[in-house]
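Teaching note: in complex prediction, the entire set of molecules is handled at once rather than each chain in isolation. The prompt given to students was simply: 'Predict the structure of this complex.' The entities are:
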Amino acid sequence: MKLAEQLKKKVVSRAVRNVKRGSAEEESNRGMYRPEIRLDLQRSRFFTESYKETEGQTMVVRRAKALASLLAKMDIFIRDHERIVGYQTSDINGIFHPIDQNWKSPARLVNSEAGSSLLDEAGKKELDELCAYWAGKSMSDRHQAAIPQSLKKYWTYEGTFLWTQLSELGIPDYERLFETGLKGRIQAAKDKLAEIDETIPVDYLEQKDFLEAVIISLEAVIHFGKRYSTLAETMAGEEKDPKRRSELEEISRICAWVPENPPRTLLEAFQFFYFIHLVRYMEYSTLGIGIRIDKIFGPFYERDLAEGRLNREEALEIMQLLWVKFNELGLVYSPTVSSVYGGVASLQAVTIGGTDKDGNDVTNDLTYLALEAAKNLHLIEPSIALRLHEGTPDKLYSNALDVIKTGVGYPSLFNDESLLPLIEKWGVPPVDARDYAVTGCVYIEIPGKNVMRRAVGYFVLAKCLWWALHQGVNPKTGEQHGARTADPSTFTSWEDLLDAYAEQVAFFTNKMEQLDRINLELIEKYCPRPFYSAIVEGCIESGKEARKWVYPSMIHSFAIVIGGINVADSITAVRKVVFEDKRVSLPELIEMMDKNWEGHEDIRQACINAPKYGNDDDYADSIARIVLCRGEEAMETIRDRYGLPHRGDGSAVSATYGLAYDTPATPDGRLDGDFFSDSTLAPSPGQDKEGPTAVLNSCAKIKSIETYNHLLNQKFPPRFLEEDTKPAFMAYLKTWKELNVPHLQLNIVDKETLVSAQEYPEEYSDLIVRVAGFSAYFVDLSKGLQDHIIARTEQSLA
Amino acid sequence: MISAQDREVPKGLVFNIQKFSVHDGPGIRTTVFLKGCPLSCRWCANPESQSSEPQLMIRDLKCTGCGACASVCTEKAISFKEGGKRHINWQRCNQCFACVDMCLFGALTVVGKLMTPVDIVEEVAKDRIFYRNSGGGVTFSGGEPLAQAQFLQEVMALLKQDGFHITLDTTGFAPPAALDRILPLVDLVLLDIKHLETAQHVKLTGVDNRIIQENARRITDRVQTWFRMPLMAGINDDADHVSRVAGLARDLGVEKISFLPYHEGGISKWPQIGKIRPDFEGRAPDEDHMAALTELVSRNGLQVGIRI
Ligand code: SF4
Ligand code: SF4
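The expected output is the structure of the full assembly:
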C-alpha cells in the first residue's frame, strides 16, 4: 500500500475540464487543464519538419517517415520510480495535439482564457509557425474545403449532433505481436513484398508503398525502444543507489529486447504493450485501450510465478507501475468538445473477465491483481470493464464489488449474455464475438481485427423529437433545418409523432454520414496509418492499408445517442396528456413548450406526472421500448461508405449535460436546456420513484438486440455495500445479469459528500465520480455538471 | 372516510410499499407497511403509520403557493400568509382530501391507500426474480400488521400459494387469536422488543408489555423468530437490560437480535400530518457501546446485526 501512495503522487492529471456547455461558455476562467499541464510541441514540430522533407512522396510513406522522425528525435526521459518506460511527450506534464489533424483548436485554445497556461510566449510563437504550414493541409482544413455549401450548416454544431473528426478506436492484435515481436511483422511485410514482386497485383505500387511504410514505422518503434535502452544504460552508469542501478539495467535489457522480439516475462510484456499503446496514440491520436489485460498477460504472470522469477507482491507492484503510465496520456480537445468530455483524460478502459473464443472463463490471478492495483491507486484511468457471463466465479463478483465500493466508479459491468447476441447480430462470427473487449465507456470492439470503429458524433435524439414537433423548421428563424415532416396539428395519435421523430432521426443521421463520408475518404487519402495497419490482423497479409477495407461484418460507424429516454417520456406524456386525457391539443402543447412552459405550469405538471420510464410501469416502459427501437431502426437505414448501417451507442460521456443546453423544452415537462437522463437506459433525473429493482425491471424491457449497447448508471450510498448488505447487493447484480440488462456502472457516494465537495473542493481533490462511461475527479467538473451528477437519484436503502 | 362497503371487500390500508428492502429480513424484499398501530412509541419514526385512517400529508417544500387548494376547501382550513406557502389549520381539516386533487405539485397527498390482496400480490410479484436470487421475499410491517388480521391472512395466503417467503414484522401486541390465524402462513417473524420492564414499557409505548411477552412464546414456539431492538442510549441500552433480552431470546430459541440504533429520520413527518411530536430526547448508543452490546449478544450464542 505504501508504494501505491507514493506512486499516486507521481500522477499529473490530464483530465479536461468542461469549459463549454454546448454552445455556451462555462467556467472557462478555470482553465481547460490543470495549471501544471503544458502543450508539448515536439510531435507537431517533428511531424512538420518531416512533412516538409518528404513533399512529393506518397502519403503512406510520408506518414511513416513523420512517425519515424518523431520517435527518433523527441526528447526522452525515465522517471526515478519507473520500471516501465515511455512517454508521449518530452515533458512529464505534457500533452500533445495532432496538428496534422487540426491546428485551429490548439491555436484557438492557447490564445483563450481556458488554455492560456498551456504554452509560454516562445511556444505560442512556434505554434503559430507550425500552424502556418498546416493551413489548408490539416485534415480538418481539407474537410472544410471539401464539403459542399449545402452541407456546411450541419458541420457547425447547432444542437442536434456534434460531428467529431477525431475519434477512432481499435485494439491491436497483441496475442500475435507477443508471439512474433515486431520483427515478425517486419518479416511478414518483407515476405509480402517478395510475393507481390512475383505476382504483380493490379495495385502493385500501392501495396509496395504501403508495405515499405509498414517496415519504416515498425523499425522506428524498435529504434524508439532501443533509445530507452541506451538512456537507461547511461543512467545506470551514473546511479549511486545499487537497487535503482539494477532496475535501470533491467530497463536497458528489456528495451533492447522488446518490442523487437517476443516478450519472455510479464515485465517485458508490459513494456512491449506500453510501447505499442503509446505509439498508436502518437501516430494518430485516438482514445481507449481495450486490451483484455488478464487474458493477454495472465500466461506471462503464471510462467514467471512457476519459474520463480516473480512473486505475487512484485507482480502487483509492476501492475501498479503500469497503471500510473495510463494516466500519462491525455489529449487537447476543442472547447466545444470539452462539453461532452468533462473530466475525461483519454477514456482508456481495460477489459477483464469474460470468456475465450471457445467460451471458457478467462479469469486468472491477474484478473484479481488488476482489481487490487485499481483499488490501491484509486485513479480515474484506466477504467475497468468487467465482462460477466454464466461462468464468472463468485469471487470475481465479490472482489469487483470491493473496488466499486471505494466509489471509483469501476469496474463497469458488461453482460455477455445480453451483448453477445447483439454483436453477432452485427455480423461478427461467434468466435470473434466471444473475444470482444471494451475500449472506453461502452465502446465494443473485437481485439486484433481491423474494425476501426469510429464514434462519428454525439447525436441528440431529444432534439430530433423537437424538430418533429416543428416540422424541421426553426421557429425563431423560420429556416428549414430538419426534414419537412407532417404537421403536428394533423396527428391523431402518439404513433404519428413517433413516425415524424423517426424521420428526423434518419434525416440528421444522413447529414452526419454525409459529413463523415467525405471525412473518411479524405482520411484514406491523406491520413493512412501504416503503424496501426501493421499491428492488426489482415493488412500486411492483404497488402492493404487499414483504411482501405474493414473487417467484414463488424459495425463500423456509430453515433453516441443521448436524450433517448427523454424522447420516450415525452411521447408517453403526449399520449397521456394530449390524446388520452385531452387536456390540451398538440399544437397548444407545442406553443406552451416553446414558451418554456411560462404561464402553463399546470400542463407542465400534467406532463411531469404522466407515467415515466424506470418505474416498472408497463404504460411508460412499453412506449420507451418502441421509441428506442424506432430511433435505432431509423439510424440503421443510413449506410456508411462500407455499406454498413449506422448505429447508436450508449457512451454518453458528459454530453447528457453539455449538449442538452441546446435542446429547448420537451413534452416530458423538461425545461429549456435542462439536462437529459444521464445514460441510454437511465430514467430521467428524479423520475425513478420505485427504487433500483424497478429500474432494472424497466431496463429489462428495452432489448439490446433491438437497439444497441447501452449504458446504465446507478448511484447508491456507500452503506449499501457494507458487509451486512453485500450479499443482497451481490444478488442484485446477479439479477441484473439474469434480466439481461447489458451494462451497469455504479456511483457509490453519498449525496452529502458531493454537496460538501462542491463547497470545499480543496478537501476533496481525490474524490472520484463516475460521469458516464468514465470516472473523473469531481473537482474538475463545472458546477453545472456537478449538479447533474448530484441530481441523479440516489437509490435509497430501506 | 372509509365506508363500511369498502371494508367488506377485505382491503388493507397500506401506507407504503418499499421495494428493495434489505433490512427487513433476509435478502432483497418488498416491505408492505400497513397503517394503524395500537402502540404510540415516543420515538416513532413513522408517525403516519399510527392512525388507522387515511390522512392528509403535506410537503411544504413542494408548495408553490399557487392557491388552487384553498378554493375547494369547504372547511376553510387552508390559508396563506403574504405570498407564501399554504398553511393548514389542522383543527378545521376534516380529512376530506378535496384539496389533494387540486395540487399539481405533490404538496398535498393522502397517506394510506386501500388495496386488495390481489393488488398487493401484483406489486410484490414484480420483484420475484430479486427474491429468488437473494433468498428474499415479502415483509409485512407497520404500524402493526396484525391489527388488520383478516386482510393479512388473505394476502398472505395468496402469497404463500405463490411460494413467496413471508416475514412478519410485529410489535407482538395483538390478540392471540390474530396470531393463530397468521402464524401458520409466516416463515419468519421479526419481533420488536422495546423494554422488558412493564412500567417502562407503558411509559415509552403506551401499552403493557405482558401480552407481548406471552405472545413472544406463542410466536417462537411456531415460527423462526428474530428480535428487533430499537436502541436508545440511557433508556434501554444498558448491558444488564440487553443481556436480559439476550437471555430471553436464548430461552425462546430466537436466532438473532437486530439492533436498530435510534435515529431522527422521522422527525419532520410529525408536522406533515399535523401532529406534534411527543417530547423525546433520543440518542443512539456510541460506537464503543454498540460494539460491547454486539459482543454481549454473540456471547449468548446468538446472531447479531445492526439495522439488519
Ligand atoms: S383535506 Fe382538509 S384541508 Fe384539504 S380540503 Fe379537506 S378539509 Fe380542507
Ligand atoms: S395547490 Fe399545492 S402548490 Fe398550490 S398552494 Fe395548494 S398546496 Fe401549495
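Point out the following to students. Chain B touches chain A at residues 18-24, 27-28, 31, 64, 66, 104-105, 126-127, 129-130, 133-136, 305-308 (CB under 8 Å). The longest helix of chain B spans residues 239-252.
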